[in-house]
Design goal:
9-stranded parallel sheet; 11 helices
């Protein structure tokens, strides 16, 4: 049976639109304001909310997310704080929550403790950016045993022979990376359509496309080949440009409303 993530994406499909999954660096600009921003994203209709765990040595984060991460780290945000934020959000809202993290913070926290506290906080899924399926199988198994969706990434550089394995190990949705490089603005890889069709041939899971999607993105070419979009840098850039807390919240809400208005463009015909 599908968990909260799967049910939310099915609701979006039945409504004739794609799903919207915004990313927010937890603890940015500070922990209190991060809570307010996260709640605002849920209130404006995020189908799933990604909370990014600040990490000092990221591999895939572009300059915008790095800036937000450094501010969160400067405020002392840790994985424990992110789990606390997830628990507070869950007490107020039913939006599915996904933690996006690198492996190092999880190991330092303790893998068993992480799985247990994530489950108790109401987290629905986990993305381990630098841990491919097949590595650390005990961790993957313990996440699934705790009913936490294991969301894996597929990129243009992924060996086609590995796609079936990744698809088989994924739960919730498949995170499809639109292009090479780090997060931020940029055109999708020319072969992204082939990758998306390959994903469908190996899994019925919703395909959610991330990296490079923002307020100016034309989503119409994605009709029928993705079921959702992930937006991170575009949202954080909008928040960073605002002058104060009120402006940041207003900007975040307006950004989500703008993207939600585009979601029917990617609904299957």
């Amino acid at each position: 049976m599908a968990g909260r993530i799967g049910r939310a994406l099915e609701v979006a499909r039945k409504a004739g639109r794609g799903a919207l999954i915004p990313f927010l660096t937890s603890g940015f600009p500070d922990r209190d304001e991060s809570d307010r921003l996260a709640l605002a994203l849920c209130e404006e209709g995020a189908d799933v909310l990604e909370l990014g765990v600040p990490f000092s040595d990221p591999l895939a984060d572009g300059p915008v997310i790095q800036t937000a991460t450094q501010r969160a780290l400067a405020r002392g945000t840790t994985l424990s704080h992110v789990l606390g934020q997830a628990g507070r959000l869950r007490a107020k809202h039913e939006t599915p929550l996904v933690l996006m993290t690198y492996l190092n913070p999880v190991i330092r926290f303790g893998t068993s403790r992480f799985v247990d506290e994530a489950r108790r906080a109401g987290v629905d899924g986990v993305i381990l950016v630098d841990l491919p399926p097949g590595e650390e199988p005990a961790l993957w198994d313990s996440l699934r045993a705790a009913d936490l969706d294991t969301i894996a990434l597929v990129a243009p550089t992924t060996d086609p022979l590995r796609v079936p394995k990744i698809a088989a190990e994924s739960r919730g949705f498949l995170y499809v990376v639109a292009r090479l490089g780090v997060t931020g603005a940029g055109a999708p890889d020319p072969a992204i359509g082939d990758l998306l069709r390959m994903c469908r041939s190996h899994s019925p899971l919703p395909r959610c496309l991330g990296f490079g999607i923002g307020r100016e993105s034309n989503l119409a070419p994605l009709r029928g080949v993705v079921e959702g979009i992930l937006v991170g840098s575009g949202l954080l850039e909008t928040i960073l440009a605002a002058p104060d807390a009120e402006g940041r919240e207003n900007s975040a809400r307006a950004f989500i409303r703008l993207l939600r208005a585009k979601l029917p463009d990617i609904a299957s015909a």
